[in-house]
Design a protein that fits this description.
mainly alpha; Cytochrome Bc1 Complex, Chain D, domain 2; Oxidized Rhodanese, domain 1; 3 domains; two-stranded antiparallel sheet; 18 helices; binds heme C
Length: 427
């Protein structure tokens, strides 16, 4: 049956393999759907073991709102032993049978509202196109899986893998990757690294002139994806980076940079400069973690804040800060996956990932003004706010500028760790 393998190992005949395996997967899905009628009980068992997968890292948080199409089939999948501790090889077991239907459902639940339902990109800022052929032909399955599991910490791209406290098991990631792969129509290639030795120092002026306006002076990303993210640099080889520069990404702002602007030497120098931004990555799993929903609201005896909302939906950071200073009563929800919260969050906020809102909302007081935020700055926070509004919460707003502007533009307080107010010493 379908073998989950890195595209790098099958550059030429890939299209055939993809279509044959897609056909096999579809056939299997059809057969299983027929069989499903008799298997309601085993589905139930399987669902509880799926919730158990993420229990290990989420300490009791269950996978919420999985699409029902996915659930129907989930019961018939073979789960791999020990899959939630797969570490760097997460998603790379050979014998897993991918499930495209579940892959699509999961993609739409967790990815589509930023990367687009067809992978067209840019629904949230800098969420690049995942259906771009110039990207897909060099992005191996491993690259896609590791990017999904580890995310790009410090950007709106969260770590989604359960080993990072996110909602996705390794097999779920494989299903999503298989779904993304269905957008590829051109054959995969193994991109060539620059043929010359590069120098980061020599690459600097060229980078400043040609690249920094979109990617940032130190590769931190401005109007385009970041290039300095340790997880990105840890996952790609020089060929991947060189290919993006040589051919660009059709239909996006990323042009093809060739001679005379970027010679073969210039290419090598740019790759060397981008490489020089590598830093060691933190491979430790986050500590087990449950949201402190009981630690709401902030300032339970304080006055009601009187926010002036933009479009009846967005609250400016300054107003939230002023309300905190005035010790007014409110609840601030960090709607991102837990790893982002543990890394750094707005002081006083609790972690309640957008896909968990329905499970924990009854522990929140609907009469308290509730603010959701994320880094994107409206996509994830908007999902959480809409979930609360749908549950009848009358006073909900989205932090307009998002987490990064709260921290970087305004310099308002943030803390790290499990505690809303910051690390506590009495543990
Ligand atoms: C909140 C918006 C958001 C969501 C939700 C999101 N992403 Fe992303 N994603 C981004 C952004 C922004 C980037 C670019 C980050 C950077 O600047 O480095 C990115 C980058 C990526 C990349 C790397 C692409 C490259 O060329 O380097 C992959 C792969 C990816 N996302 C897949 C996914 C998948 C799969 C999901 C769902 C499980 C997902 N993303 C959910 C915003 C999002
Ligand atoms: C006008 C804006 C712009 C300029 C200038 C620009 N880029 Fe890009 N670049 C982008 C965008 C947008 C993307 C992501 C496109 C997509 O796949 O959706 C990108 C993608 C990339 C990627 C792939 C990153 C990844 O995570 O997949 C690399 C590498 C890159 N650019 C390097 C460069 C270099 C080096 C230069 C200068 C020679 C440069 N870019 C100039 C906008 C720009």
């Amino acid at each position: 049956m379908f073998k989950y393998m890195s595209m790098r190992t099958l550059p030429l005949s890939k299209l055939n393999i993809i279509s044959v395996s897609t056909f096999l997967v579809m056939l299997l899905v059809m057969l299983l759907n027929v069989a499903c009628d008799d298997q309601d009980r085993s589905n139930t068992n399987q669902e509880s073991s799926m919730a158990g997968e993420s229990d290990a890292s989420l300490a009791g948080m269950s996978i919420a709102g999985e699409a029902s199409a996915a659930e129907e089939i989930a019961g018939d999948m073979q789960m791999q032993a020990g899959e939630s501790s797969a570490g760097m090889n997460a998603g790379m077991e050979e014998s897993y049978q991918v499930d495209l239907v579940r892959g699509e459902a999961l993609y739409q639940q967790f990815c589509g509202f930023c990367h687009g339902d067809q992978g067209q990109g840019y629904l949230a800022d800098n969420a690049n196109a995942l259906n771009n052929q110039d990207f897909l032909v060099v992005a191996s399955d491993e690259f896609l899986a590791l990017s999904t599991i580890h995310g790009r910490p410090g950007t709106p791209m969260s770590p989604w893998g359960d080993e990072k406290g996110g909602p996705l098991s390794p097999n779920m990631v494989k299903d999503i990757v298989a779904f993304i792969r269905t957008w590829q129509v051109e054959p995969s290639i193994i991109p060539e690294a620059p043929s010359l030795e590069g120098s980061a120092q020599r690459g600097r002026p060229l980078y400043n002139a040609a690249c920094a306006s979109c990617h940032g002076q130190e590769g931190e990303g401005v109007s385009a994806v970041s290039l300095n993210n340790p997880w990105f640099l840890n996952t790609v080889d020089d060929g991947f980076i060189a290919h993006a520069i040589r051919v660009g990404r059709r239909g996006t702002a990323m042009g093809a940079y060739q001679a005379p602007i970027v010679t073969e030497q210039g290419l090598a120098d740019l790759v060397a400069l981008i490489r020089s931004w590598s830093r060691p990555v933190d491979t430790d799993p986050p500590p087990p973690f449950t949201p402190q929903v009981d630690q709401t609201p902030l300032n339970p005896n304080g006055d009601e804040p009187s926010f002036i909302l933009r479009e009846d939906r967005f609250v400016p950071a300054q107003q939230v800060y002023d309300a905190l200073q005035a010790e007014q009563k409110l609840t601030i929800i960090d709607a991102r996956p837990a790893a982002d919260y543990l890394d750094e969050h707005i002081q006083g906020a609790i972690s309640l990932p957008f896909y968990e809102v329905e499970n924990y909302a009854d522990l929140l007081d609907p009469n308290v003004f509730t603010i959701t935020y994320c880094g994107c700055p409206h996509a994830v926070s908007g999902q959480a706010a809409d979930a609360l509004i749908a549950l009848g919460f009358p006073k909900v707003a989205i932090l307009d500028e998002g987490f990064y502007e709260w921290r970087d533009t305004f310099g308002f307080p943030t803390v790290s760790g499990e505690q809303p107010q910051g690390p506590s010493n009495d543990k």
